[in-house]
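Intended use. Records such as the SLAM family member 9-like isoform X9 entry shown here are meant for training and evaluating sequence-to-structure methods. They are not intended to support clinical decisions.
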Amino acid sequence: MMLLLQWLVVILCLQIEEAVSTDSKVPLTVIGTVGKSVILPLKISSDKIRTIVWLSHNSLATVDVNEQNSHIIITDSKYYGRLKIFRESNYSLQINNLTTEDENYYKGQITIESQGQSETLIQEYFLHIYEELRKPQITVNFTGPENGTCNVILLCSLEKEGKNVTYNWISLKDGEEDTAYEGPNLTVSWRPGESEPNFICRVTNPISSQRSQPIPSSGLCTGASSRNYVMLIVGIVIAVVLCVAIMVGSIFWKKKRQGFIQYSPNNVQQQGAATEGNTVYAQVNHPYRASQPS
């Protein structure tokens, strides 16, 4: 009795383990490129496949398999003309002209007939879609020299980054490459007389890798000093022009204001009215009359 009970416990544990392993099955990861094709492989050893139903967020296609040929019925309109079945590869599914919208979970539901009985197998996938990267661009920011040290910040960027992109800065020295730093930003410092560094930014994702043009450090700080000097001169010129314009405008405004008061029609009328209302008398002495005796 005890032996029978032990066997029952062992069988129950095996069934539980099998159920857990089936439910926790990890989907197969498949990587595709925008505009290209990808294959979702079916790994089935049986030659008794009768039907295959491909599913994603909804039903994509149904494959009817027979000994002479296989017929595919597309059930999702956005996959018209984009699906292909490979009979020699266990009826694996190929998706053509990939777009970013094709990234999703996929499932192959396979029906097998053996000895008059049907069995359903399921294979799951997750399709990642990536775009090929373009050459990165480098932006140079000057933080200004400190104690004779040249400080420069290099910024590496992409016009369209996408997902899972990594940045690496590669130092070029004596014709050899060395990965100096990981990340899009790099701060570089060196003193006069030291060997000036030379860098390349490399960007990668799971399907592609691109490099920037080499960024030589020679002349960067000199360029910053020249730029600051030019900006200073431009600032002084602008300030002088503004001062002159303000002075000329002030003088012109004062002159115009004085002319307006002097020649104002109201002032002319007031002066005319005052003249009409008053009589002016003048006394004139004749010189000859003053010299005659009385």
